[in-house]
C-alpha cells in the first residue's frame, strides 16, 4: 500500500502523518506542493495538519490552489483515496472535494486537548477498524474547526451515513457536532481531530491507530 | 525627503541621551574613534552598548556561574547552549525575555519573543522540539492584567502553533509588583547531531555575507535600546518599536536553514535578533577576527527610502545573516528560492578590523569592529546586601480545607488549562506529557530516549532572601526533573530584575547569582545559556526579582519515566524533612495577604540525595511530584485530582500541610511498593514517611473533609472565571 503525504511550506504534521502511515505498514512518499503530479501507484493521499500557507487569506485556501492539489483533485475524481487531517480537512473543503466549510471556533480561541468522539459509521476503509457508536478519545488542535453546512447538507450527510465522527462535547461550535465527514464514494475522509497523535502508547492513547490500520489493511487487499 | 538622500541629523547631547548613552559612554566613543561619530555610527554604538546587548551591568557576575561539565558541548556566548545527550545527539536550548515589548503590545511582543528564541535554536543547526513560557503578570483585578494575559497567551500560541513546536510547560503567576511590567520568558529546545552544530564565528577573507529570510522594514528600530529603559507615562509612544512576527516565514526560514546547513554551504550563521543587522554582523566578524563590509543597497527592503540608520537598527523578524562557501552559492540560492525566501549577498568578510557600511555610494559608518564588540562598557555597579528578612509575625489558625480552597481558587495556583489549551502541545507527535503536571516530556524522535523540561522560580523567596531564592529556583527545577525520573543535565537562566543602578536592586542580582551558582555546582546542572533583563520598573517601582531557571533532563528510555497517576488505595509518602516553614509561603500570600518571614532554607546535599533516591527507586513509584508553593496540601490535592481520586492526609495543622520546606517530594505507591520504599529509604538514610492515602471521593485533612468534586470544580474553573 502506497501513501503520499503532501508537504506545503507551512505543514507541520507531515512527519507525524508519515510516521502513523508507516507504523501501520504503508510505504510513504513525501510530495512537495510545487510538484504537479503524484508518484505513480499512490493509493492514498494524506493531507497533513499545520498552517499550509500560514493561514493567510483563509485556512487551506491557498493550498487548495497549489499545483499538487490539482493532481489530488484528479486522483479523487478517479476514485483514489484521500485523508485530510485538521488543515488537511480545511484544504479538502476549500477544493470542494468535501462539502461545507471550517470557520473560526465558536469560542474564538485555539483549542488543543483530547476530546471524546463517537464513531458514527464503520462503513468506510477509514473507520472499518471501529464499531459504529464506539466512543474514542483523539486530540484536537485548531483555531478554525467549526464545521459549517446548511441544513440540507447536514441532512444529506446524515442520510448517506457520511458523518464519520461527531464530538461528544462540542469544542468548537461545529454544526451537528460534526468532527469528520466522508465523500460520496466514501473514499475521502476529512476530520479535525488528529488520529496520528493518538497512535502509540507514548501518546497517552492509541484510539487513532485503528484508523491507519484499517485504511492500510483495506487498501493492501484492494 | 522623497527622492533625496536624507541629511543625517547633527549629534547633540539630546540625541546622545535619546540613544540611551551616558555622557561618559559617549566620551569613550570619541576616544575610540578619535572623531565624532556619524548619526548611523551613533545608532550602531547605542545598539551594541545598551544593556540588552552588552550585559554591561551583569557581565562581572555572570562570569561567576558554573558553565562547564562533561556533558556541555557549548556554554554561554553563542545563540544557545548545547548539551550532549549520547548517541551522537545534542539538545540545544535557551530562555530569553521579551518583557518590555510584551507590555507595550502583548500579542506581537510575546509572539516575537517565541520567534526569537526559536531562531536562536535553529541557528545552531537544531530542529526545535519543545517550547515553554514563564509569564508574570500584575494582580488579577488590575485594569491592564486581563488584556495582557489574553494578548500574551494568544501571541505565544499564534506563533508557536503555526511554527509547529509543541509548547510543553511553563509558569503563570500574578503579583502586584508586575502591574506595570509583565514578564514574558520564552524557552525553546532543539535537537541536533552533536558534530553538526553551527556557530557564529566567520572565517576566511572575501567570503560572501548573505542575508536570508524576510525583508527589512522600519519595525523595531531602537527596540533593544527601549528594552533597556524604564517605563513611564510615555509608554504608548513606544508601540512602533515593537516588531511584528510572521511564524509562517519563520517556519520556512528554519526549513531552508536546516536544508542549507545539511548541504555544507554554511561557514557561520547568526540570527538577526535585537539590533538586527548590526549585532549579527559585528558578532560574526568579531568572533572570527575579521572585518565586515555591508552594502545596504543590496538588503531586501519592505519599505521605500529607508536610511542606513534605519536598516542597521531595524528589528524586523525572521531574518538571518550567514557567511557562505562561495562555491556553494548557486545551491544555496536554489534552496531559498524553493522556500520562497529572500536571499541576497549583502557584503563580504574583509581582512582589516573594520565595520564598513556603504549605502547609495556613501560610507555611512566606518568603525573598528573588534572594539565595537569588545570595548562595550562594563560596570561594577555598587550594590548592597539585602538585609535579613524580619521575623515572621504569628500565623492565625485556619481551617485547612478553607486554606486549600483559597489556594486552588486563586489564579496563581488554580489549574491553567485556559492557558495551555491555547498552545499546541502535541505537534510533532512526540509529546509524552502535556503541560499542567510538572515537567513536560518529549521523546527524542526515533529513539527510546526522552527529554524533560521545566521552568521555575519563586520570586517572593528571591525578594526576601536573594541567595536562598536563587538556590531554590535551581533546586525546584532539579526536583521537577527528578520527579519524572529524568537525570538533570543543564540549565538556562533568564534573570529579570529592576534598575541595576539602584544598589538594593543590584544587591538582589548579586545575591541571586550567588545562590544560583552554588546550587548549579552542587547539583551538576551548569548554566549553558541565558539572558538578563534589567530596568523592569515602572515609575520607579521594581518587579519582584525573578531569575527564571529553565532546566533540561534526560531519560535514557521511556521505561525510566515516572509518569503514572495516583490511584485508589495508593499510599501517600513524603520524602524529605518537614519543619513547617511558613515564611514567604503561598499560604501567607493567598490567605492572609502577607509576604513576611524568610525564604525557606535549601539544603543542596539533601536535594541531591533525595533526587538520587527517587530515580534509583522509580520502579516502585506510581507517581511523584515535587513539593513547592502550597506545600504538602497543594501537592497532594493536585496529585489526587489528576488521578481522579480522593485524598486523606493525617495532618490537620497549618505548618505540616502548608509549610514550604525544600528538598521534598510526594510519592504515590501501592502498599507493597511503599513497604519496599521504606526499606530502601532506611538503607539510603533518607527520611520517608507515610502521610496519608489516595482514594474515595473526598479530600480530608485529619477530620476536616470536603467533596473532591467540589474542590475539583473550583480548581479547574478559577482561572477562566477570573481572567477568561
UniProtKB/TrEMBL annotation, chain A:
The active site is at residues 86, 194, 196. GO terms for biological process: 'de novo' IMP biosynthetic process. SMART domains: GATase_5 (SM01211). GO terms for cellular component: cytoplasm. CDD domains: GATase1_FGAR_AT. It catalyses: N(2)-formyl-N(1)-(5-phospho-beta-D-ribosyl)glycinamide + L-glutamine + ATP + H2O = 2-formamido-N(1)-(5-O-phospho-beta-D-ribosyl)acetamidine + L-glutamate + ADP + phosphate + H(+); L-glutamine + H2O = L-glutamate + NH4(+). Pathway: Purine metabolism; IMP biosynthesis via de novo pathway; 5-amino-1-(5-phospho-D-ribosyl)imidazole from N(2)-formyl-N(1)-(5-phospho-D-ribosyl)glycinamide: step 1/2. The keyword Nucleotide-binding applies. The keyword ATP-binding applies. GO terms for molecular function: ATP binding; glutaminase activity; phosphoribosylformylglycinamidine synthase activity. Its main location: cytoplasm. It comes from the Bacteria. Keywords: ATP-binding, Cytoplasm, Glutamine amidotransferase, Hydrolase, Ligase, Nucleotide-binding, Purine biosynthesis. Its EC number is 6.3.5.3, 3.5.1.2. It is found in: Cytoplasm. NCBIfam families: FGAM_synth_I, PRK03619.1. Part of the phosphoribosylformylglycinamidine synthase complex involved in the purines biosynthetic pathway. Catalyzes the ATP-dependent conversion of formylglycinamide ribonucleotide (FGAR) and glutamine to yield formylglycinamidine ribonucleotide (FGAM) and glutamate. The FGAM synthase complex is composed of three subunits. PurQ produces an ammonia molecule by converting glutamine to glutamate. PurL transfers the ammonia molecule to FGAR to form FGAM in an ATP-dependent manner. HAMAP family: PurQ. Part of the FGAM synthase complex composed of 1 PurL, 1 PurQ and 2 PurS subunits. This is Phosphoribosylformylglycinamidine synthase subunit PurQ. It comes from Rhodovulum euryhalinum.
From TrEMBL, chain B:
It comes from the Bacteria. GO terms for cellular component: cytoplasm. Residues 205-355, 568-696 form the PurM-like C-terminal domain. Residues 77-191, 439-554 form the PurM-like N-terminal domain. ATP binds at residues 55, 94, 493, 530. GO terms for molecular function: ATP binding; magnesium ion binding; phosphoribosylformylglycinamidine synthase activity. It is an enzyme of class 6 (ligase). Residues 19-56 form the Phosphoribosylformylglycinamidine synthase linker domain. It is found in: Cytoplasm. GO terms for biological process: 'de novo' IMP biosynthetic process. It holds the Pfam family FGAR-AT_linker. Mg(2+) 2 binds at residues 120, 271. Keywords: ATP-binding, Cytoplasm, Ligase, Magnesium, Metal-binding, Nucleotide-binding, Purine biosynthesis. It catalyses: N(2)-formyl-N(1)-(5-phospho-beta-D-ribosyl)glycinamide + L-glutamine + ATP + H2O = 2-formamido-N(1)-(5-O-phospho-beta-D-ribosyl)acetamidine + L-glutamate + ADP + phosphate + H(+). Substrate binds at residues 97-100, 119, 243, 315-317, 533. Its EC number is 6.3.5.3. The active site is at 52, 98 (proton acceptor). Monomer. Part of the FGAM synthase complex composed of 1 PurL, 1 PurQ and 2 PurS subunits. Part of the phosphoribosylformylglycinamidine synthase complex involved in the purines biosynthetic pathway. Catalyzes the ATP-dependent conversion of formylglycinamide ribonucleotide (FGAR) and glutamine to yield formylglycinamidine ribonucleotide (FGAM) and glutamate. The FGAM synthase complex is composed of three subunits. PurQ produces an ammonia molecule by converting glutamine to glutamate. PurL transfers the ammonia molecule to FGAR to form FGAM in an ATP-dependent manner. PANTHER family: PHOSPHORIBOSYLFORMYLGLYCINAMIDINE SYNTHASE SUBUNIT PURL. Belongs to the FGAMS family. This is Phosphoribosylformylglycinamidine synthase subunit PurL.
Amino acid at each position: 500500500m502506497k501513501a503520499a503525504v503532501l508537504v506545503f511550506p507551512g505543514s507541520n504534521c507531515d512527519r507525524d502523518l508519515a510516521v502513523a502511515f508507516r507504523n501501520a505498514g504503508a510505504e510513504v512518499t513525501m510530495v512537495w506542493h510545487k510538484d504537479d503530479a503524484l508518484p505513480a501507484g499512490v493509493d492514498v493521499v494524506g493531507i497533513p495538519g499545520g498552517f499550509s500557507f500560514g493561514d493567510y487569506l483563509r485556512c487551506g485556501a491557498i493550498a487548495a490552489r497549489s499545483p499538487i492539489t490539482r493532481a489530488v483533485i484528479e486522483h479523487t475524481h478517479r476514485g483514489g483515496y484521500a485523508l485530510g487531517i485538521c488543515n488537511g480537512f480545511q484544504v479538502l473543503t476549500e477544493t470542494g472535494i468535501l462539502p461545507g466549510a471550517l470557520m473560526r471556533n465558536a469560542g474564538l480561541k485555539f483549542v488543543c486537548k483530547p476530546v471524546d468522539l463517537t464513531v458514527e459509521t464503520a462503513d468506510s476503509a477509514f473507520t472499518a477498524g471501529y464499531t459504529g457508536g464506539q466512543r474514542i478519545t483523539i486530540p484536537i488542535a485548531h483555531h478554525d474547526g467549526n464545521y459549517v453546512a446548511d441544513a440540507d447538507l447536514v441532512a444529506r450527510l446524515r442520510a448517506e451515513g457520511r458523518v464519520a465522527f461527531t464530538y461528544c462535547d462540542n469544542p468548537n461550535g461545529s454544526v451537528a457536532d460534526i468532527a469528520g465527514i466522508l465523500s460520496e464514494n466514501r473514499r475521502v475522509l476529512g476530520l479535525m481531530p488528529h488520529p496520528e497523535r493518538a497512535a502509540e502508547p507514548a501518546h497517552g492513547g492509541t484510539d487513532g491507530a485503528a484508523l491507519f490500520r484499517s485504511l492500510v489493511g483495506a487498501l493492501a487487499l484492494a | 525627503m522623497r527622492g533625496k538622500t536624507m541629511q543625517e541629523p547633527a549629534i547633540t547631547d539630546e540625541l546622545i541621551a535619546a540613544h540611551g548613552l551616558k555622557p561618559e559612554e559617549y566620551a569613550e566613543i570619541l576616544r575610540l574613534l578619535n572623531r565624532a561619530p556619524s548619526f548611523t555610527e551613533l545608532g550602531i554604538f547605542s545598539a551594541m552598548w545598551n544593556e540588552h546587548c552588552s550585559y554591561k551591568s551583569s557581565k562581572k557576575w555572570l562570569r561567576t556561574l558554573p558553565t562547564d561539565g562533561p556533558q556541555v558541548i557549548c556554554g554561554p556566548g553563542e545563540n544557545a547552549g548545547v548539551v550532549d545527550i549520547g548517541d551522537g545527539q545534542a539538545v540545544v536550548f535557551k530562555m530569553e525575555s521579551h518583557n518590555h515589548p510584551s507590555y507595550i503590545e502583548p500579542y506581537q511582543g510575546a509572539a516575537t519573543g517565541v520567534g526569537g528564541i526559536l531562531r536562536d535554536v535553529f541557528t545552531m543547526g537544531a530542529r526545535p522540539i519543545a517550547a515553554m513560557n514563564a509569564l508574570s503578570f500584575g494582580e488579577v483585578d488590575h485594569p491592564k492584567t486581563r488584556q495582557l494575559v489574553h494578548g500574551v497567551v494568544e501571541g505565544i500560541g499564534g506563533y508557536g502553533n503555526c511554527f509547529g513546536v509543541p509548547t510543553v510547560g511553563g509558569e503563570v503567576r500574578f503579583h502586584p509588583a508586575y502591574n506595570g511590567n509583565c514578564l514574558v520568558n520564552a524557552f525553546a529546545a532543539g535537537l541536533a547531531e552533536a558534530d553538526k552544530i553551527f556557530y557564529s564565528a566567520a572565517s576566511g577573507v572575501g567570503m560572501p555575507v548573505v542575508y536570508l529570510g524576510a525583508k527589512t522594514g522600519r519595525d523595531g528600530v531602537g527596540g533593544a535600546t527601549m528594552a533597556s529603559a524604564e517605563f513611564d507615562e510615555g509608554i504608548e509612544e513606544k508601540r512602533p518599536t515593537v516588531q511584528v512576527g510572521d511564524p509562517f516565514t519563520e517556519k520556512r526560514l528554519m526549513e531552508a536553514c536546516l536544508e542549507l546547513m545539511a548541504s555544507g554551504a554554511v561557514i557561520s550563521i547568526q540570527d538577526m535578533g535585537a539590533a538586527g543587522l548590526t549585532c549579527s554582523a559585528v558578532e560574526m566578524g568579531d568572533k572570527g577576527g575579521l572585518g565586515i563590509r555591508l552594502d545596504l543597497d543590496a538588503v531586501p527592503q519592505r519599505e521605500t527610502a529607508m536610511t542606513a540608520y534605519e536598516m542597521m537598527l531595524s528589528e524586523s523578524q525572521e531574518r538571518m545573516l550567514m557567511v557562505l562557501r562561495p562555491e556553494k552559492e548557486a545551491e544555496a540560492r536554489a534552496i531559498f528560492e524553493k522556500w520562497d525566501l529572500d536571499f541576497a549577498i549583502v557584503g563580504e568578510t574583509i581582512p582589516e578590523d573594520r565595520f564598513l557600511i556603504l549605502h547609495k555610494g556613501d560610507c555611512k559608518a566606518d568603525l573598528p569592529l573588534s572594539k565595537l564588540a569588545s570595548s562595550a562598557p562594563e560596570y561594577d555597579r555598587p550594590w548592597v546586601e539585602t538585609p535579613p528578612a524580619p521575623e515572621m509575625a504569628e500565623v492565625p489558625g485556619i481551617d485547612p480545607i478553607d486554606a486549600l480552597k483559597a489556594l486552588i481558587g486563586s489564579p496563581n495556583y488554580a489549574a491553567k488549562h485556559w492557558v495551555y489549551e491555547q498552545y499546541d502541545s502535541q505537534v510533532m507527535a512526540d509529546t509524552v506529557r502535556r503541560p499542567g503536571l510538572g515537567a513536560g516530556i518529549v521523546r527524542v524522535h526515533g529513539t527510546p530516549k526522552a527529554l524533560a523540561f521545566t521552568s521555575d522560580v519563586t520570586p517572593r523567596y528571591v525578594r526576601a532572601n536573594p541567595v536562598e531564592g536563587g538556590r531554590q529556583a535551581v533546586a525546584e527545577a532539579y526536583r521537577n526533573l527528578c520527579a519524572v525520573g529524568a537525570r538533570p543535565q543543564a540549565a538556562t537562566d533568564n534573570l529579570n530584575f529592576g534598575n541595576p543602578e539602584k544598589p538594593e536592586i543590584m544587591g538582589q542580582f548579586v545575591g541571586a547569582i550567588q545562590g544560583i551558582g552554588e546550587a548549579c555546582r552542587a547539583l551538576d546542572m551548569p548554566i549553558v545559556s541565558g539572558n538578563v533583563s534589567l530596568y523592569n520598573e515602572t515609575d520607579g517601582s521594581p518587579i519582584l526579582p525573578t531569575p527564571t531557571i529553565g532546566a533540561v533532563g534526560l531519560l535514557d528510555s521511556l521505561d525510566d519515566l515516572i509518569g503514572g497517576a495516583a490511584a485508589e488505595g495508593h499510599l501517600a509518602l513524603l520524602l524529605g524533612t518537614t519543619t513547617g516553614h511558613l515564611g514567604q509561603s503561598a499560604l501567607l500570600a493567598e490567605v492572609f495577604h502577607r509576604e513576611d518571614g524568610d525564604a525557606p532554607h535549601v539544603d543542596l546535599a539533601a536535594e541531591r540525595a533525595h533526587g538520587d533516591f527517587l530515580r534509583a527507586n522509580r520502579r516502585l513509584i506510581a507517581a511523584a511530584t515535587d513539593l513547592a508553593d502550597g506545600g504538602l496540601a497543594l501537592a497532594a490535592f493536585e496529585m489526587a485530582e489528576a488521578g481522579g481520586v480522593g485524598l486523606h492526609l493525617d495532618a490537620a495543622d497549618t505548618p505540616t500541610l502548608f509549610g514550604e520546606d525544600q528538598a521534598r517530594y510526594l510519592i504515590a505507591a501501592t502498599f507493597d511498593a511503599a513497604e519496599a520504599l521504606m526499606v530502601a529509604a532506611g538503607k539510603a538514610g533518607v527520611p520517608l514517611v507515610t502521610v496519608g492515602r489516595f482514594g474515595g471521593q473526598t479530600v480530608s485533612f485529619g477530620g476536616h473533609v470536603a467533596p473532591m468534586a467540589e474542590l475539583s470544580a473550583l480548581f479547574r474553573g478559577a482561572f477562566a472565571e477570573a481572567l477568561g
